[in-house]
Amino acid sequence: MYQCPKCNCEYGYDDGVAYNCPECGHIWTDLCIENAKVKDSVGNELKDGDDVTLIMDLKMGNTTLKRGMKGKRIKLIEEVDGHDLEARIDGVGNVYLKSEVVKKL
User: Fold this and answer.
1) Which of 14, 32, 63, 73 has its CA 20 to 30 A from that of 96?
2) What DSSP string runs through 16-52?
3) pLDDT of residue 80
4) What single string gives the DSSP state of each residue in 2-19?
5) Which pLDDT score, from 0 to 100, does residue 79 have?
6) Residue 69 burial (CB count, 10 A)
7) Do residues 94 and 87 lie in contact, with contact meaning Cβ atoms separated by under 8 Å?
8) CA-based nearest residue to 105, from 57, 58, 36, 44
């Protein structure tokens, strides 16, 4: 049995070509799952709850997020204007970030 990445159904099955979900009808392959992983600037896979550090200065309105600032307890999100994660930065609050400008701690 394979877990569906779309609806988390536990009854997915392999038909010899791809995996199928009997509940939502989603079809996926191992390559789809690999491409869906969110990776940081050096290729480490990011998951919910990870801590990250910024690898470059980022201009955000009147504030600049400096290189080396830490983002705590990230949350992977559906893409919002190219941003694919949300993190809490001390002194700033919750911000949306792109995975290519962070490095996993």
Assistant:
1) 32
2) SSSEE-TTT--EE-HHHHHHHS-B-TTSPBP-TT--E
3) 83
4) B--TTT--TTBEE-SSSE
5) 81
6) 19
7) yes
8) 44
Assess contact for 9 and 23: CB atoms under 8 A: yes
Count of CB atoms situated within 10 Å of the CB of 105: 12
Q: What is the pLDDT of residue 23?
A: 94
What confidence score (pLDDT) does residue 35 get?
75
Residue 100: predicted pLDDT = 92
DSSP state of 61: T
- In this structure, what token pair is assigned to residue 26? 């989603």
Helix (H, G, I), strand (E, B) or coil at 65: strand
Segments of the chain with pLDDT less than 50: none
For residue 69, give the DSSP letter: P
Q: What torsion, rounded to 10 degrees, do the Cα atoms 43, 57, 98, 31 define?
A: -20
Looking up tokens 């201009």, which residue turns up? Answer: 59
